[in-house]
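Quick one:
INPUT:
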């Protein structure tokens, strides 16, 4: 008598939105197994998407089947087993090699025959096509949303996501703090640490109650969202939301950031006497000169030139 694993799966992703809940799947599959007189050795419940390989419980179940613990799987539908080509191909291979003798679905006909495996391949292909189409439709919807000037992500600090209008609105209290942070930094008298301290004093801290990191401050000051635009997929788009700062103030802040981020010019040493003429008597490498300054306690300053081999 064949032994079966009962496998139930549901994820929080969009592709499983209309699928029966875990509890409903288990109830239906238990009843189906009892009516068909199928012997279940273990029930496996997995809450993870099947659109890409790597489900730990699913992989463990197939490994146990390869080890001979069971020879069949009971599931609600083939799309509960796989929505990607890797997992679907692995199941087909186990059927071809006889490791899986039977697959039982109350909503799908299957027999381990060439016709049955052909229909199972089609079912797996339809499941993958559904996921791929859903992803493409989602991307297309996001692109259209961007064209309308609607930011397709969560609102940055200083704004709120309005679930009623499905838009981004200004947080009246925090937007004032953000504007003041821009104004402080634009004056050129405050460091990034000072801005972080200012935000902390205004109650804008991390979830752990600590001052925000300067990288977070830079992210805020460089975000074009605050002057009415937004960045999406590496490009800046004009938004429909209300700006918090003017474009002029934003540009002043960017100039201040760029000025302070420029590397200091390295000191260029002038050529020393004898350089290029002398060689090391040990390794025959060139001799170079290096200036040193010595400050004495009595206030005198002396300048020395030290010569050494360039060999390191």
């Amino acid at each position: 008598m064949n032994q079966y694993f009962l496998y139930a799966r549901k994820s929080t992703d969009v592709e499983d939105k209309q699928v029966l809940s875990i509890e409903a799947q288990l109830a239906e599959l238990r009843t189906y197994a009892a009516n068909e007189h199928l012997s279940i050795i273990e029930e496996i419940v997995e809450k993870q998407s099947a659109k890409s390989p790597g489900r730990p419980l699913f992989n463990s179940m197939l490994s146990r089947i390869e080890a001979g613990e069971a020879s069949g799987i009971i599931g609600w539908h083939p799309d509960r087993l796989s929505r990607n080509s890797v997992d679907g191909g692995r199941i087909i291979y186990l059927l071809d090699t006889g490791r899986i003798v039977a697959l039982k679905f109350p909503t799908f006909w299957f027999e381990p025959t060439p016709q049955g495996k052909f229909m199972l391949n089609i079912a797996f292909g339809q499941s993958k096509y559904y996921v791929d189409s859903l992803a493409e439709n989602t991307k297309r919807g996001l692109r259209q949303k961007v064209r309308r000037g609607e930011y397709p992500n969560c609102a940055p600090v200083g704004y709120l996501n309005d679930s009623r209008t499905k838009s981004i609105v200004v947080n009246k209290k925090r937007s004032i703090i953000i504007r003041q942070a821009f104004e402080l930094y634009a004056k050129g008298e405050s460091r990034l640490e000072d801005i972080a301290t200012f935000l902390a004093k205004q109650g804008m801290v991390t979830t752990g109650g600590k001052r925000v990191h300067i990288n977070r401050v830079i992210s805020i000051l460089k975000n074009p969202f605050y002057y009415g635009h937004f960045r999406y997929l590496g490009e800046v788009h004009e938004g429909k939301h209300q700006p918090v700062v003017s474009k002029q103030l934003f540009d002043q802040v960017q100039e201040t950031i760029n000025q302070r981020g420029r590397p200091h010019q390295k000191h260029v040493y002038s050529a020393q006497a004898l350089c290029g003429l002398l060689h090391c008597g040990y390794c025959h490498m060139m001799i170079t000169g290096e200036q040193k300054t010595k400050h004495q306690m009595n206030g005198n300053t002396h300048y020395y030139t030290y010569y050494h081999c360039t060999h390191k």
